[in-house]
């Protein structure tokens, strides 16, 4: 089963996970603490899923485009009926547009992206000058965070390597901070980071 089908299948019950809801809330709070969101901003949430992050970010901005490879997940986001949230069923690395965005946010998606150089190139391309990224994901872990690593291309991310990657692709003012821990029974806490940077 490929990654898309797996996420489509789990879309109906995705938001019933207390851990996912709490994680998205903490990531949202960290983003608004570190980034000044404005009502004139046009944003992308890449890997938007059912919109656990999108629905909160959209309260602060003009518009938000939820991008995801799972049509099932995006259907749940569309059901919210929020006028300033639109969705696009596509791999963000394949998204071609003349539109330039003020910011890109993401929650727990980057470890599913195989080619990080292509991702950071595309994010830079999609942003206006002075635009920002705010990406939350797993700190380096031993591969035990997921019960099934199908579609998982990275077991978290090392701080120095990720900062270097962002800088290589034209981002500045790059910051990486631990914002939250996910606790799973019998395992060491899994650190969640927020990476922020400007074009």
Q: What's the Cα radius of gyration?
A: 16 Å
User: How many β-strand runs?
Assistant: 7
> What does the overall shape look like?
globular
CATH topology: Rossmann fold
Give the SSE order as H and E letters. Answer: HHEHEHEEHEHEE
The share of residues in extended strands comes to 25-35%
Average pLDDT number: 90
The percent range for helix content is 25-40%
| Lateral strand order in the biggest sheet | 3-2-1-4-5-7-6
- Low-pLDDT sequence parts: none
CATH class categorisation: Alpha Beta
Give the second-level CATH assignment, the architecture.
3-Layer(aba) Sandwich
Distance between the termini: 37 Å
Largest sheet: 7 strands, mixed
- Structural category is alpha/beta
Features:
199 residues; seven-stranded mixed β-sheet; Rossmann fold; 28% strand
Characterise the protein shown here.
Strands 3-2-1-4-5-7-6 form a 7-stranded mixed beta sheet, sandwiched between helices. 36% of the residues are buried. With 199 residues, the protein is α/β, with parallel strands linked by helices. The longest helix has 17 residues, at 18-34. The chain is globular, with a radius of gyration of 16 Å. The model has no long low-confidence stretch (mean pLDDT 90). Helix 3 links the parallel strand 1 and strand 2 (63-68). The chain contains 6 helices and 7 strands, in the order ααβαβαββαβαββ. It has a single domain (3-198), classed as Rossmann fold, CATH 3.40.50.150.
């Amino acid at each position: 089963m490929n990654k898309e089908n797996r996420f489509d299948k789990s879309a109906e019950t995705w938001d019933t996970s207390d851990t996912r809801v709490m994680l998205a809330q903490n990531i949202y709070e960290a983003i608004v603490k570190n980034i000044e969101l404005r009502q004139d901003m046009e944003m992308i949430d890449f890997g938007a899923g059912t919109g656990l992050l999108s629905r909160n970010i959209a309260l602060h901005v003009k518009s938000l485009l939820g991008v995801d490879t799972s049509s099932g997940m995006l259907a749940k986001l569309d059901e919210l009926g929020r006028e300033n949230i639109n969705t696009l069923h596509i791999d963000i690395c394949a998204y071609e547009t003349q539109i330039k965005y003020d910011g890109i946010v993401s929650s727990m998606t980057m470890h599913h992206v195989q080619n990080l150089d292509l991702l950071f190139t595309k994010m830079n391309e999609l942003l206006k000058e002075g635009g920002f990224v705010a990406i939350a994901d797993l700190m380096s872990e031993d591969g035990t965070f997921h019960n099934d690593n199908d579609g998982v291309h990275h077991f978290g991310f090392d701080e120095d390597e990720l900062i270097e990657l962002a800088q290589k692709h034209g981002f500045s003012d790059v910051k990486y901070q631990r914002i939250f821990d996910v606790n799973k029974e019998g395992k060491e806490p899994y650190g969640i980071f927020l990476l922020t940077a400007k074009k």
